[in-house]
Design brief:
Elements (H helix, E strand, L loop, with lengths): L2 H9 L6 H29 L4 H24 L6 H32 L4 H25 L1 H7 L14
Helix pairs in contact: 2-3, 2-5, 3-4, 4-5, 4-6
Length: 163
């Protein structure tokens, strides 16, 4: 396999290969982490926001970047509007759980273990990274099942005809 073919396979071609998706998710995670970590630092150090509130805002920024890049590049979502709505809701649920894990780890590491909040963020990021990948991988792999069991949204139902 040539280097060019390998790069195309890893970086450009759509894939369902979990290992390649994990590598891509690593790039996405790194991008989201830079936004998350940078926002945490700026909000806490320069804006004077409490580290827990800064961590929540920074996490949401990272989550948004992660969602957009993951759907477009990692998991190659090409679903209908209904699938995309379900994906977004699923990403949000996985993200909210990740935010809770993030807040818990930050609290335990900073307030109980007396670590610096930036060191705590590194630990939290590593743990939440794997939670997010696994949750989102399962979600995007099974979105068609979720759409079948969920009732139709108002956008997809038709109004009864008037006589």
């Amino acid at each position: 396999m040539s280097f060019r073919v390998l790069i195309n396979r890893l970086l450009t071609n759509p894939t369902d290969n979990a290992f390649i998706q994990l590598i891509r998710y690593g790039f996405v995670g790194a991008t989201a982490f830079i936004a998350d970590f940078g926002s945490l630092f700026i909000l806490t150090e320069y804006a004077g926001v409490h580290y827990q509130l800064s961590a929540a805002f920074a996490f949401i920024i990272g989550l948004t970047i992660n969602y957009i890049l993951s759907i477009r590049w990692v998991f190659n979502s090409t679903g209908t509007d209904r699938h995309q709505l379900m994906e977004f809701l699923g990403f949000a649920i996985v993200g909210v759980i990740g935010l809770g894990l993030n807040a818990l780890i930050m609290y335990l590491a900073v307030d109980l273990a007396s670590l610096h909040y930036m060191a705590a963020k590194l630990i939290s990021t590593a743990i939440v990274f794997f939670w997010n990948f696994l949750g989102r991988k399962l979600l995007t792999s099974n979105i068609h099942i979720l759409c079948k069991i969920m009732p139709n949204s108002p956008k997809t139902t038709t109004a009864p005809k008037q006589s």
